[in-house]
Amino acid sequence: MSYNGADQHYYMVDDEDAADTMDGIDEEYHTADDANLDEYDMLMKVTDTSSSQAREGKDIQGIPWDRLNTTRESYRATRLEQYRNYENLPSSGEAADKGCKPTDKGGRYYEFFHNTRLVKPTILHFQLRNLVWATSKHDVYLVSNYSIMHWSSLLQNLTEVLNFSGNIVPTERYPGTLLEGFTRTQLSTLAVKDRFLVAGGFHGELICKCLDKPGVSFCTRTTNHENAITNAIDIYDSSSGLHFMTCNNDCGVREYDMERFQLLNHFQFPWPVNHTSMSPDRKLFTVVGDDCDGLLVDARNGRTVGSVAGHLDYSFASAWHPDGRVFATGNQDKTCRVWDVRNLSAPTAVLKGNMGAIRSIRFSADGQFLVMAEPADFVHVYNTGENYERRQELDFFGEVTGLSLSPDDESIYIGIWDRTYASLLQFNRRHTYEYLDSLM
Where are the WD repeats (predicted)? Predict the structure, then answer.
C-alpha cells in the first residue's frame, strides 16, 4: 500500500472522517421540526432486525425509509452515481470495465438472518478490510475501536477479548517477545483460526493470543522500518503445526510458527505487500501489493515461480479455491480476477464490482462459492460451478470492515461501519429443507 507521511490523512481515518455513507439520510431527519425530534431520537435507538421482521418488510439495517424524504431505490441510485472509488492509478476502474462480461445476479444462495446493532465494527485504514473473522457459524471476532470483540449469535452476547487502548503485555516468555508489550496499539488487520488470534498494528506490531488462555502469549515488532504497517495476516495449518504469515509495507513477508512463536522465514519483494494467502497444499503463496501484477511464490524458499498480469491498479486481496488449482485476486480497478495455476497467461474470469475496489475475497470451504466485498454497500456471492456467470448480490449501506464465512459455510458475516447504522450482518445458507429461522 502506498504511503507518504505528508499524505497520511488520506489513509488513516479518525472520528471526524468516519464513514458517513448514511449522512445524507441523517440530514433528512435533522431538517424535521422540533416536534419530530423525540421521534428521531426513538428511531435512532439500537434495534436489531430479525429474518422474520425482514420478511414482513422491515429494512435489514433498520433504516426507516417510510419516514424519510427519499426512497431506498432513489438513495441507491444516488450512491452509485456519487461514490468515489479510490485509485492509485487514475481511471483504472473505468478502463477495467471493458474487460468484464455481464453476469446474472439472480442467484439465491444465502438469506438474510440477523442484523445486530449492538456490535459496532470500525476501521482505521480505509484500504485494509480484514477485521471480521468467524470461527464457527455462531462465533465472530471483530475490531471495534481499540478493542477486539467476540460476538455469539447463538447467545446474542458481545464480550471484549482484548483492549489495546492501554498497555498490552505478554504473559508468556518466548525468544523475541517484547516483554514490555505495546501501548495504545492502532489495529490495522486481524486473523483468527481455531483457538488462535493474531492482530497487526500500524507500526509493525504483532500480538498473538491463545483464545483458551488468559492474557497475551506473544508480542513483537516485525520491523523498525518507518513504513511498517501490518497489512494482512494469514493463519494456516502446516505439516509441523499451525503457522501464520504476515505482510508489511516494508516489502516483507514473514512466516511464524504458533507453537513457539518463532520467525521461520523472511522474504523480500520489490514493492509493499498488501496481501498474501497460502495454497491448500502449502507449496505456494500469493503475493499482491503496490503493483499491477501479482506473484506466485514457492513457500519453501520465497522464489517467484509465476506471475499474473491484467489488473490495472494495486491489489489488496487474494484467496485460494480449496482444490489448490485456482486462486483469485482483488484490485482497486474494481475487479476480482480468477486464475488457474496451470495457465497463468490470462484470467479465467474477470468479476466486476458495482462501485468500488474489491478489498476482501473468500472461497467457501466446499469450493462452491466465491464471495467478494467492495469497500461499501455490496458483497457478491458467485457460483463457481456455473463458471462465475451467476451471482447473488447482498445490498446494504455502509463501509465494509470485513467479510467472513463460517468454517462450515453456513453463515456469512459482514461488518458495517457507519456513524448511525454500524452493525454486524448475518446471512445464512439456503437449504432445500430447513427449519425456519433456526439458530442451530
Answer: 308-349
Q: How far apart are CA 408 and CA 327, in angstroms?
A: 20
Taken in order 155, 142, 233, 338, the sign of the CA dihedral is: positive
pTM above threshold 0.85: yes
- Angle at the Cα of 133 from the Cα atoms of 288 and 348, rounded to 5 degrees: 40
Cell numbers for 53: 421482521
CA distance 261 to 245: 11
Structure confidence by residue, pLDDT tens digits, 173-210: 999 999 999 999 999 999 999 899 999 999 999 999 99
Quick: pLDDT tens for 376-422.
Answer: 999 999 999 999 999 999 999 999 999 999 999 999 999 999 999 99
- Cite the beta strand spans of 229-283 per DSSP E: 230-238, 241-248, 252-257, 263-268, 273-278
- Burial zone of 25 (CB within 10 Å; 0-12 exposed, 13-18 middle, 19+ buried): buried
What's at 253, amino acid-wise?
A: V
Please list, in sequence order, all residues whose beta carbon lies within 8 angstroms of the beta carbon of residue 117, skipping any fewer than 6 positions away: 46, 47, 48, 62, 421, 422, 423
Residue 82, exposed/middle/buried by CB under 10 A (0-12, 13-18, 19+)?
exposed
